[in-house]
Amino acid sequence: MIQTKAAGPSGSLPLTDKMLREAPSGNLFGLSQNVGMGWEPGKLNGKQILLLSTQGGMRGEDGKPIALGYHTGHWEVGLLMKAAAEEISQNGGIPFAGYVSDPCDGRSQGTTGMFDSFPYRNDAAMVYRRLIRSLPTRKAVIGIATCDKGHPAMLIALASMHDLPTIAIPGGVTLPPSHGEDAGKVQTIGARYANDELSMQEAADLGCRACATPGGGCQFLGTAATSQVVGEALGLSIPHSALAPSGQSVWLEMAQQSARAVMKMEEQKITTKDILTDGAIRNAMVIHAAFGGSTNLLLHIPAIAHAAGLYIPTVQDWNNVNKQVPRIVSVLPNGPVHHPTVRAYLAGGVPEVMLQLRPLGVLDETVMTVTGETLGSVLDWWEQSERRQQMKKRLKEADSIDASDVIMTPAKAKEKGLTSTVTFPTGNIAPEGAVIKSTSIDPSMLDENGVYIHRGTAKVFTSEKEAIRAIKNGEIHKGDIMAVIGRGPLGTGMEETYQLTSALKHLSYGKHVTLLTDARFSGVSTGACIGHIGPEGLAGGPIGKLRTGDIIDVRIDTKKLEGHLNMIGFSDGGNSPEDGKAILEMREVHPEMKPDPDLPDDTRLWAALQSVSGGTWKGSVYDVNRIIEVLKAGEEALSQLKKEKHSMEI
User: Fold this and answer.
1) 43, 210, 288, 518: which has the fewest C-beta neighbours closer than 10 Å?
2) Is 134 noted as a catalytic residue in this protein?
């Protein structure tokens, strides 16, 4: 029998004369909505806390899938939402929940789905901000996210809420298989099989086991893990929360602690602008360098700074930080020992890295954190905490690993040969600069001074599909220099080319190949892979004029963090950077380079907006004032052209 009416909730709204006379109608109707959804009328006066999440998929009560998510990183975060919400309720608050799910960069590698990956970040941050503003009665916001684009989008959104208390809960990491390969290496089974370096059965077995637990980000220090680390380094997440193993009690406890922390922030009138300062941004850059993090954070940290209304770090700022800060963490994918990220967590995570850096004076310890305490106070606590000792003890018991072999002192890291993280080479191919995670170049390819030198013949590709086909068909050989051009924001939305970098990493000859591109790389990429080359080919950059047969000279000093990328001529002419520059200036762009025919209009719009806002080196943000200025100038120019055309017709 179909009902056509119902009694409605029992009880009365806790209204007052002042509320009825002065409150907006939306606030009053919101109370009706709240009881309509089942909240008790007598509990409507609690402080409203908004929880936002990237949750995806549908899980049964037993954890089994009803509908799959896109990836493990957003599969279990609903449990964090539940734990945080229950904590808020138990303390008299009213939790609200909203969701904007996120894609999986691993799932979209090599597909047109990658064209939406980076632009998604801006769109998601915008929707999160709209959701926050659309609940005018919220007193604080908790953001829960895990992976490559969802977590940076959440940090950007929270950073925009200057006058609200906000806190980020990281979704943690999945565990590695007891016997098998991590989720980064397993993405190369196709390339290794095609090169007869893996059997079909081996590929099938390894692929089945790679994601050993159903939740959390991948087990390596890729973009997801690095973003979690950066969120904590900014002070937006509670201490020792990044990289927690998903689904375990210590992970759920983190959500409960975060809920208590944000309610305390609201009581003490601590808001996001108290947490995010120029000092906090620099601390994030310092910790990025110390961990050896993903180069994608060079795109995300400036965007966070922009959202917070802070100074946006330049390439020179990044260079200075990386020259001052040693890398002291040994994890996947950089090594030298490829520990999974859960070991970095047990070794002490972000606070342990900060503690080891403390004597160097590279951190601003005066910054405020979401605990309500300064970073200096947090580190004082961590140094003496029982938690620190218990974590290290568990790492030894479980994996027979000493914490000091995962997170080292600067002196030990130097002794073990760990080098700083990022180098920004320039040259006639990259006049605006480029980036390479120099710490991930195979050590056997460096000379006695830690310098990578490669002079070779270019093989130029105008699509990633052509490039991966060449690798799988045996057309790439030891000593080649691959140039994948026209794949920046205007060409593909600045796609990740991990399909290429991972194949080169795990093929026997791959360490002898250099890759140049105006696209970007996955956070787990390793090898002599140089990306973010600017200007991009489709914006008139010299990389767009390269041809197969050009002689390229690459030099990366992994100790001084200096380098160059130069075209020096071709087989029958030229032998210097000056010759190469002259040749490139005279050339037309590559005739086959063009925006990908499958590039969505959504991404084309994103590319145009971020381009006039400063482009990738400014974080690919939307600078609204600049966009409006350009639109106004364009309208005036079009109006003038129309007048001139009209006068000529007369």
Assistant:
1) 43
2) no
